[in-house]
Design goal:
This protein has one domain. It is globular, with a radius of gyration of 22 Å. 78% of the residues lie in helices and 0% in strands. The chain is an all-alpha fold.
Length: 423
């Protein structure tokens, strides 16, 4: 009875803090303090100690490195060069410019690891071009917004790194598992682009344009080859690959393309520091909370409770998918991973799900959240970047949300799509 009252008081505390609109880091600190006092060793100074232990991981350094790398390439000309390569290959297809946008987002996402960075880098270049070529405003908006979400499933992905850290799952395995679903989404989006724009006039395929595009964009195209090749061959760890990618991006943009001035780096650093400054306190507090919950066997108790509610893995994964879709609509991806991944993972293992597969399913669910109101991050950023009404953006995203739901079902039903390269 006492434990039930303690749990209800904790729930009331969280609800109260949400009602008065406190930031997530404050809510997590309050929950961590409550758990330490009630179920832990009643020492609040242990929170700081646990935060230090939680952040003392080499893998965490990969996050700011990839953010800096994405910022450098956004300031430079990498996005424009990738778009030219993709459009030279697909321009003769119906909806070819839409396909080029998706392919460009896929390749850029394999460098930046971020949805918003991918959407802005590719979208600000190709959105006006699509409008000028006769594509509908809604389709052009939906393409760049959904293409941006590829940045969090195609490796290297910052949300996959965070999931790996909080659940102690192999980052390399998660990266490998993200390739199949990422390619599946690229194929689905591209097929939809061809079908939806089948009446738009296409240009003739020109080999000389392809050759010129590859010559201009060869260094940009080598980035994902170097990055992912180094990781999967074992030459780099995830953190080392982020450092190599950043160094390569700076050298290419500053000395080869000569489109990045060193004065521009200050702005890139400031933006990356802002993002890291907002993210790292959340990671520290969430991991501290995870430690004390694990010490007090809270995940074990939750597994027992969930197994009483659900009698089959199918019922469990359907419920989890519905939960994550709802959470993704009201919470950002990184916040949802930090809070839910450590709690849901033990239950998933108890039902026989592979931790890598469960991570991919979780990311796919939360990826859809980038396009769903009220907190869809890509919707919010696109509203400012492309000067569109929020309702118009929501309508534009609907067909692509449907395609992402199809991909989610396929990956959940056929695990080999994501695990084929891992096992």
């Amino acid at each position: 009875m006492t434990e039930f009252l303690d749990a209800m008081l904790l729930f009331g505390l969280v609800v109260f803090l949400l009602v008065i609109r406190q930031p997530l880091v404050v809510i997590l600190l309050a929950v961590a303090a409550y758990v330490h006092l009630v179920w832990g060793r009643a020492r609040l100074d242990f929170i700081v100690e646990d935060m230090w232990v939680s952040l003392d991981k080499e893998l965490i350094l990969a996050i700011p490195m990839f953010l800096l790398c994405g910022g450098v390439m956004t300031k430079g000309s990498t996005a424009r060069r990738l778009i030219r390569i993709a459009s030279s290959l697909t321009g003769h297809l119906p909806g070819g410019l839409g396909v080029a946008a998706i392919l460009s987002c896929g390749v850029f996402g394999a460098i930046s690891g971020s949805s918003v960075v991918t959407m802005l880098a590719i979208g600000t270049v190709i959105y006006p071009a699509m409008k000028e070529a006769g594509y509908s405003n809604r389709f052009a908006l939906g393409t760049v917004m959904s293409g941006g979400t590829l940045g969090i499933i195609i490796p290297p992905s910052i949300p996959l790194i965070i999931y790996g850290i909080v659940t102690e799952t192999s980052i390399i395995d998660l990266f490998l598992a993200g390739i199949g679903p990422g390619i599946l989404l690229v194929i689905l989006f591209s097929l939809y682009s061809v079908w939806a724009n089948r009446k738009i006039r296409v240009k003739r395929f020109e080999l000389c344009e392809v050759t010129a595009a590859f010559r201009e964009g060869a260094w940009a195209l080598m980035m994902p080859v170097l990055l992912l090749g180094g990781i999967y061959s074992g030459y780099f760890t995830a953190t080392e690959s982020a450092s190599v990618a950043l160094l390569y991006a700076v050298c290419v943009e500053a000395f080869i393309h000569r489109e990045l001035k060193f004065a521009d780096l200050h702005g890139v650093y400031v933006e990356a520091i802002k993002l890291v400054g907002a993210l790292f306190p959340l990671i520290a507090v969430a991991l501290s909370l995870n430690l004390v919950l694990t010490e007090n066997r809270v995940p074990v108790a939750m597994v027992a409770l969930i197994q009483e509610w659900f009698t089959s893995p199918l019922a469990f994964i359907i419920t989890v998918n519905l939960l994550l879709l709802a959470v993704g609509a009201v919470m950002t991806t990184n916040e949802a991973i930090l809070i839910l991944a450590p709690l849901l993972m033990p239950a998933a293992l108890a039902f026989g799900f592979d931790p890598v597969l469960f991570g991919i399913i979780m990311i796919l669910n939360l990826e859809i959240g980038y396009l769903t109101p009220p907190v869809g991050l890509n919707l919010m950023v696109a509203m400012t970047a492309f000067r569109q009404k929020f309702g118009e953006l929501v309508i534009a995203a609907l067909p692509f949300i449907g395609l992402m739901l199809v991909a989610l079902v396929l990956v959940s039903w056929f695990p080999w799509i994501s695990l084929g390269l891992v096992r």
